[in-house]
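Quick note —
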Amino acid sequence: MVSREQKRAVLHEKLQLLRSITNSHALNKTSIIVDASKYIKELKQKVERLNQDIEIAETSSQQPQLPVVTVETLEKGFLINVFSDKSCPGLLVSILEAFEDLGLNVLEARVSCTDNFRLQAFGGENEEDGDMIDSQAIKQVVVQAVKNWSESNNDG
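Predicted structure written out below.
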């Protein structure tokens, strides 16, 4: 008799554990098992969705991502940010050449090229030129420099 009582106690304990793991509020065995089954199906669906997300992320990461370019107009000049999550050898030179072609003086710049590429430059217009430069023109020139750099790196 003790053996049967022990088995019941162990079974009851395991059902309570299953109930708590699956966040079930059921009281009888059958309902606890049904809730556990639903919980397992939900977990399977989550795993499938995560696998799909991983697949999408891997597919998009295989396509070369161009650096992100932003340009803000400041009171006396422009703040230009260029960021890429990977290192971009030679990109800085391309961007600085684009600034020079545009007649933009770089007054201050911070650059990181170790694991990723990050450029933050503060530039002002060359006052010798009478032409006014707007932030959209700067962005277009920098984006074109990035594209030219990307194409020259993909060819080689």
